[in-house]
Amino acid sequence: MSKTGLTVVYCPVRGIPEVKQINRNDDIRGLIGGWMEAVRIEAEGEIYILLCDEEGKLKNSEPNFFMENDVIVGDIVILSSKGEEFASLTESDIEKVTRWIKRQRKAKFCTKCKEIFYNHPAISRRDGSGICPDCGVAEALEDFINR
Ligand SMILES: [Zn+2]
């Protein structure tokens, strides 16, 4: 890691993403509240590193957002990488990462087909839960056919 510090995006569970300047790996552990688990993410064609608490799920940390049929829990840090090293986010990276977080936070999990979706949810006729529009249509059809 460079001596001059790293520019990262920090995204707490209860809050909006903020740009932070960190100096040491310890700072990241402080922000995410545990040992680092690194997840590669793609935002607008660029690859970034999402760091979260390795034991977040064991600790029952609050969900932050859904991602590819998984849930990211706890406070997170996103930064760039150069080879094996962490690297700073540039201004355009920060914009991409912030937009990516905003989109992920709109992601919802359909309890019926177990897929992530981004549209407005449909209300299940079975249990009133929020389900994806496709499953909503499928339920409506089932009801129509079985009427
Ligand atoms: Zn569904």
Structure, explained:
With 147 residues, this protein is α+β, with helices and mostly antiparallel strands. The strands form four sheets. Strands 1, 2, 3, 4, 7 and 8 form a six-stranded antiparallel β-sheet that branches. A two-stranded antiparallel ribbon has the order 5-6. The chain has two domains: 6-106, no CATH class; 116-145, no CATH class. The protein has three helices and twelve strands, in the order E-E-H-E-E-E-E-E-E-H-E-E-E-E-H. It is elongated. The model has no long low-confidence stretch (mean pLDDT 93). Bound molecules: zinc ion. Residues 110, 112-113, 115, 131-132, 134-135 line the site of zinc ion.
Quick take:
This protein is an alpha+beta fold.
Count of DSSP-assigned helices: 3
How would you sum up the global shape? elongated
Which whole number gives the mean pLDDT?
Answer: 93
Name the hetero compounds present: zinc ion
Distance between the termini: 65 Å
SSE class: alpha+beta
Poorly predicted residue ranges: none
> Major sheet: size, sense and barrel closure?
6 strands, antiparallel
Number of strands: 12
Helix-strand sequence: EEHEEEEEEHEEEEH
- How many separate domains make up the residues? 2
Q: What is the secondary structure topology, with strand pairs?
A:
Blueprint lengths: L5 E6 L6 E5 L2 H8 L3 E8 L2 E8 L9 E5 L2 E4 L2 E7 L2 E3 L3 H14 L3 E2 L6 E2 L4 E2 L6 E2 L1 H13 L2
Antiparallel strand pairs: 1-2, 1-7, 3-4, 4-7, 5-6, 7-8, 9-10, 11-12
The protein binds zinc ion.
Zinc ion binds next to helix 3.
